[in-house]
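**Archive record**
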Amino acid sequence: MRALVLLGLVGLAAQLVDGSLGMAYGVTSTTLLLAIGTNPAAASATVHLAEIGTTLASGISHWRFKNIDWKVVAKIGIPGGVGAFAGATFLSTLSTEVAAPVMSLILLALGVYIIIRFTAFGLPRGNLGKPLRKRFLTPLGLVAGFVDATGGGGWGPVGTPAILASGRLEPRKVIGSIDASEFIVAIAASIGFLVGIGSENINVSWVLVLLLGGVIAAPIAAWLVRHIPPRILGSAVGGVIILTNVRTILRSDWVDAGSGVQTVAYIVIALIWAAAIAYSVREYRRDRDRESVEAAEHAQRERPAEEEPVAP
């Protein structure tokens, strides 16, 4: 019973983060399942089966708060499903030990770019509103879906920073669109796992508990992303990407850093991350106050002058 309660809390927390930042549900949940001895294929299958429900709830919640660009969902979701099915089908014969650090280096670079761009300059507006092309979203969906299925998570960490870095879609719609399209990915991956390993290694009660926690958190997360300012959200997402991928790199065979080195690295990143968010909050408030003053001055200029009373 204690394990089920813990899984439910993890599902709730993971979906709260995922729905707010566009990533981390699969990674968080899969990590816990692996820690208690579940084999990688069964762990990923359990998480993806739960994600069918959590992503549906998250997508509906984001839709209600108008956080979704449906054109982006269609362009990235379908190739994402293809990639996820392929990754799930071949997970038992594929190793991601070498690919994971390479992908983490790419994502780390994107995370650094995002946190600098949003913290220092705010929401990128030069490309905002320009369409996201199929030639960009199709390969992105294929790669993200494949990584998601083989690694037990990765749709958000790959898709969210790549679309954010393009500067063509505001952060809340990037997160909402990624979460909504993950429904397609979760279904495709689940079918692939059921074909590849069957259902005997999947604990249905774990699936249901993870699902319950995620469904409870989904509308809360969608509300949060609607109300968090884009500049602050961008800084927060950038920090998550950096911290997650530095952790992967330090623990890889390439680096194999000691626990002391890892601890120091995490502390330094956390301090920089906190400073970036604090700076973004300050600049957001300053910009908001300036815009309020400018709006008031503009309204004053546009207001017709009162007619002077005529002397008797």
Remarks:
- Residues 2-287 form one domain.
- The chain has a mean pLDDT of 78.
- The chain has eleven helices and no strands.
